[in-house]
Structures are given as structure tokens and as C-alpha cells.
Amino acid sequence: MLFRHILLASHGTLGAIAAEDTALQICADNGMIDHLIVVPEFWQGMTGDDWLNNGVTRDQFRNYLQAELGREVDQQCERLHRKISASACTYSSLIQFGRPDQALLQCTKKQTYDLVVLGSPRPRRMSDLMALRSKMLTKQLMTAMQTAMLIAPHPK
Amino acid sequence: MIYTQKKPALLIMGLLMLAIWFGADTGLLNPVLTYLSSGKPYKYLNEISSLPLYFGVVAVVTGCWHWLGPHQEGQLDYYSSTIAGGMLILLITMLIRWFIAPQIEVVSVDFGLIGNTGKYIHELLGLNYVVLGIVAGIIIANVFKVPDWARNGVRLSRLGLKTGVILLGALYSAAELKNLGGLSIIMIGFFVLGSVGIVLWIGSRRNISNSMGGVLSAGMGVCGVSATVAVAPVVQAKPVEIAYTIGTILLWGVGCMFAFPIIGHLLDMSHVQFGAWAGTGILNSAQVAGAALAFQPDGIETLMVAEIFNITRVLILPVIVLWLAIWYVKREGTTSSGINVGHVIITKFPVFVLGFILMFALSTTGMFAPASHYQGKYFGNTPAQGFKQENLLNSEQTEQLHAEIIGIDKNEHRVAVSRLIENGKIMTIEDDNAIRSIIKTGTLSDEAIAILSAAHDAVRHTARKIEAFRQWITWLFAFGLVGLGMQITVSSMKQAGGEPAIIGGIVGFIKAALSLIVVVLLIGETV
């Protein structure tokens, strides 16, 4: 069975790349894949505890971090755009800031999808330097999700 | 963007503050205050009878303006919007300092002393208003979330801490600053450079990236999150590396803030020893202040030592930034686009340290207390100088001293005690110094030492301006730390992990353990 409109959540971790491959396999020809990438909300609180620096240093850091996060998001979008464009599917990106599970729910409320695809959580003791501790697959998501969801297995 | 939110929250907080003041002023709160002080005079009576009135009026007036007034974009809107968050922190600090911490003390005392430590649970665990305030801040931020109307003002806590450090400058004597400064330069120099070096070395052995090693070494070595923020752009750290580093530092810092005071009490450390240890061993500078106040909640001697170490750390920061910038350029093999030393030093220089130095300079002119005063205190044994007649020794106390005078070795010490017995109070500053020496040597019985200590305290008075400074400093730090607690998120701490957590754990532990050994072996009770 193939799907015409898929929402794919990916921020480039090993689990997310597995989800990308799965989405490509089950996307119908000329189907659409919307790529959701979330900048987690914890970044907002990352510098809260810094009080010794002056405003110049803090602004410099904030601008630097914002630029770096933006660059990473752009890189991921470009990479996935190329990957999806190489198949017969169409790519579009959705960039959000906030809690990953809530961002995903918000997308499914705004737009109707045939399927939502995401990677499975990273197994314990498996290091992945791209990964942050910001779960998308929460209990809240599972109970509130109204669209069919496919969780790609984590690559061994 | 308009920052001020049309909410009644500030007005309600103002009314709550006024209700507290009214209750204290009219005696309505007396049964509660008597219960909280276990029958003794309630120690915060002066504060509770004045502070909620002043701040309550400000909160009610600005609260009405916030709720009902028209707001327009601009500087006035931005700065006025911070009042709500600031008042929220202040109200939480008031409630914890005046009601919650004393309640915990009552419960803890009911449990009785713990083993042969001679201390109650709240003393051992450091459960005082500072620690409870930080915990309250963390709980509010992570369980209830900081309300939108308070978000802007919560950042004011930084200003509170910096102002507290500036005011502290007025309390040091030149000799103290010289000795503490020298000690901190040696300790911080050794441990900061040592930790930065160890992190870089372990990092290269474990093949972590140069940017990760650079940002982690600064965070672990110098002053935690502040150093990470300063160094990250210089070593071009990736966001995930910044997240791991800050997560590790926060987790360690919060852990140390609770663990250090407990260890300090168990080892019976002096204020100087604990201040030096916390100032060196705790990774994050905010938690250094928190631990110092948690160790000594009703005084600022420990904080004074710890803050000198904090200031030394932050002064070293530009040097570390330069070092890591050069190191990074070399390791990456890129041609330097030119590291502007002057620019780095100017942009990273902590301006508030100039305020601290200015306050110290002003205090040396005798502006806050006459030059004859030592550490803001002066000798006075007449009612006009502040001596209270009820502090004269009674016959039982003079008999006790009389019985033990034979055990005093030095003649001048014996003479001082004889004069004390004869007059019922210490007569001269020289006698006072001799009595202090007897107390320190501890050769007499506990009862006699207690009598001598009381006699010494009776003739030492704190200058009024200095006393006011002490009060303000305590409040500014308490305010700042509650606010900082409200900015520590569990989701940030959860980012601790991977190689940075392992390296950070090893270096953090080595630094804390080694600095403890150095402090216990080499630093005395005073400097």
C-alpha cells in the first residue's frame, strides 16, 4: 500500500534517517512528503544560568547559536530535499520551534496527511552525536494523534 | 512588540505583600511568627514589618498601571514590563525566607539532633531559605512554567547578583582583599588551568572534536555556563556540543550546590575553608554563591570568600578565551583571520567588577565606616557606643571564669580575664583581642568559652551602614538565586550525556576532591 501525502519528522539522527528511507519506500509516485524539523524549546533555557557575562558576550552567543541552529536546519532540509527529489516524490519543509510532540500534533491539525512517519527512540547505550534528548514519541502524542503513524525501526 | 501584559497578577502580588505587612504590623501574624521562631524573638521582624510595605505599594501602583493602563511600544514599556517578574521572584523569596524555611527548621528541630553530629537535619542538609528558594525556582520553571507576564522580569535576577557583588566590595578590608585575592589567584590559577588542560588532554585521547574539547574545557575549568557562552563562538562549537556541555555543567552544578554544604558541615569547615572550596570546586559560578549562602544562611562571611574566587575566575575568562582561540586555530590547521587580543579582552571584561573595585575604594576612604573599624565592626563598651547593660556578666558567670583563670597560660590573657571579671564587661580593645585569642585556643571549658564569646560579642558592634549593606546583599543574592533557579530547566540538564558527561564527570570530581584536600590541609580558619 502506498501513501500520497506523508508527514515525515526528521532531524538527521540515525533513527530519523531510517524513517526517511521508510517514507520514501511507501510514498506513491508523485506523492508529497512534508518534512517536519523541530528546533526544541530547551534552547530557550540554555543560557539562563549565565550571569557573569556582559550583554555583548551574551548577544554574540545568542546570534552565533541562532545562526548555527539555522545552518543545521538548512543543511538537513537540503539533504532531504535532494534525497526525496531523486525519487518520484515532491518535497516541502515545515520548520517549527517548540516541543517536538506538540509541533507534530499541530502540523497534523493544520493539514490532513495519509500517514505520519518518524524514527524510533535511540536504544540505550547507543551513542549518536547528532542526538539531543528531546523526545517526539511521547504518551501525549500517542493519545492525541488522529492520523495513522508509522514508527521506523532503529537501524542496528 | 509590547512587552507589558494586561494581567492583574502584579496587583494581586502587591496586595499579598501589603497583607503580610499588615498582619505583621498589627500583630495578627504574631501566633504564626511565635510558632515559627519556637518561642524566641522572631528574627525577621524588622524585615517583615517594612519590606512588604515598600514593595507592596510599588507593586500595587505599577500593577494597576499594567492591568488598566494603555501600553505602547518603547523603552518605558520594556522596562516597566520587568517589574512583574521581579516582584514574583521577590514574593517567592519573602515567603520562603519568612515562613517556609522557618517552618522546616521547626520540623527539623522536632526531629532532634542527628547522631553525634550535634546538628539538626536542616543544618546538615543546608535546607535554608537560599537552597529552598533555588529549588522553588526550579520547580516553578519546570512544573508550573514561568508565566508569560513574568518572563521578561525573571531575567532581572542577573542584575540582583551583580549588584550584590558590587555592594560586597564595601565589606572587605585591604588586608582581607590582598590575602583572599592572593589565595584565589593561586587556587584558581592552578585548578582552572589544570582542568582546562586535563579536559583538552582527555578529549584528544578520546578523539572528540576540537570544538567540543574547547567548549567543554572552558565550561569545566573556568566558570561553567558563563565560560561556555563566552567560548562557544570562538571555537565554533556545534549546537549539540553546546547542549551537551551546558547540560553537564548544570547537572554537576546543581548537584554540587546541594552536596557541598552537607560535606562542609560534616567536616566542620570554617567560613574561609568552605568559601575557598566552593569557589574552586563548583563548576558553575551561580551555584558557588548558592552553596556559600546555603552553608552560612545568616551571615555573609563565606559568601565574601567565595565571591572573591568567582571574581578571579571571571577575570581569568578573557585569558582562557584567548588561549582556546589560539589552540583551536592551531589544531584545526586553519590560518587565523587574526585574533584581536584587545577586542577579546574588552568585550569579555566583566564591567560589574569595576563596580566592586569602586565600592572597595570608597570603603577605604571611611565613607561607610570609620577607618578604626575592622571588617565593618567596632569596639564599644558604653551605652552610647551600643553596649547593652543586660550583657554585663552575672555572678554565676564571673565565678565560672574565676575558677578557670588558673588554666590560662599567658599573663596578658589572665589580666584581660581578671579585668573582665572585675568590671563585668571587656574594658579595652586590647583586652578584647586577648579574649578572642583565648576563645580560639579553646583551652578552657565549653561553658567558660561561651561566656567569653558572649562578652566579646557584647562589645563588638556593626556600623549601621555596613549592617544595611549586609542586609541588602543577602536580599540581592537571595533574589538573584531564586530568579536563576527559575531559569534552570530540566530539559537543559537532560542534555548531559555522551562523552562530555564522562569527561566532565571525571574532571569535575577530580577538581572537587583535590581542592577539598588542598583547602583542608593548607587553609586555616582565617586569612
UniProtKB/TrEMBL annotation, chain A:
InterPro entries: Rossmann-like_a/b/a_fold. This is Nucleotide-binding universal stress protein, UspA family. The lineage of its organism: Bacteria, Pseudomonadati, Pseudomonadota, Betaproteobacteria, Nitrosomonadales.
From TrEMBL, chain B:
It holds the Pfam family Cons_hypoth698. InterPro entries: UPF0324_pro. It comes from the Bacteria. The chain crosses the membrane at residues 48-68, 80-100, 120-144, 181-203, 215-236, 242-267, 274-296, 308-329, 349-369, 472-490, 502-524. Keywords: Cell membrane, Membrane, Transmembrane, Transmembrane helix. It is a multi-pass membrane protein. The keyword Transmembrane helix applies. GO terms for cellular component: plasma membrane. It is found in: Cell membrane. Belongs to the UPF0324 family. This is Uncharacterized membrane protein YadS.
